[in-house]
Amino acid sequence: MKQTLLCVVTISLMCSLVYAAPEDRGSYTWSKYTVNIPTRDGGSITALLYVPNAQYPYPILAIRHGFSKKKIKYLHLTKYGEHFASRGFVVILPNSRAESFYDLEPEADDINDCMNWAINRSKQPGNSLSGKIDETNQAVGGVSGGGLVATIATAKNNTDPTALIKYRALMCFEPGDINGLGQYYAPMISTPTITIFGENTLCNTFTSGAVIFRKVTGPAYGLKVIGADHCDSESRFSLGCALICMCFGWDAYHNKSYRRYGTAFLEAYLKCDAAAFLYINGSIAQDDKRVGLYIDSHGLEMPPVGCQ
Fold this sequence. Notes:
Rossmann fold, 9 strands, 33% helix, 19% strand, globular
């Protein structure tokens, strides 16, 4: 009996030592590709694709960048591609084809086209995605305006009767609501959602995107990173963001909180990882003085439905 108990204690200790904090890089090696993805309107999207190297089906995550006039807009998020791939996700960083703030619904279709393309490629032999995607575990996310685009994409996915799989998580960093689209689409979303803000700024339209997690019908987790500027939500420093949003650089300390809770949320809902549960309004989150919980967060009981 004593030997059995010792084994259980030892195994538990080893598991706690192996688990990397969600804001840290994981143990997976990965490969990066530049791909052109066909869209339903006959066009195509350039995207960066990050694929863990081990032959195993992984959850898939598409992250949409914020608005920019740069031709290669997804470069602001490359560190997120690397981070999530190292944690065992296939990651797509699609580039935007829009040149204004008002083409959001077609942009949402582009995200859904990227997800469908990747899943279909995973079913085909002889390519970088062959057998690499667990199609039952899909998530989309976005930063700034990209968070609103991801919200619309999720609403379209949730209400599309032809969609074989519903997204299992939505991750938004600093989304704003433009023309009331967030308020319109959020009630259509039953997908578990995390929305993380910094301080009220012009570039997050003074946290108007908080309407997203307040109005979604599924589990919703709203957090504020205390003292964070809008640009801290991007994966690295961006001069364009700093100039347009009048941010004072990029703060790695604040960005760590976006990574921590975004990653934990995805690992809780897509991987049923018990080590992530304490970050979902659990003791770790409640003791973390760097963040504050929006009181209208709801439905965050752990483990998530489907993980029991």
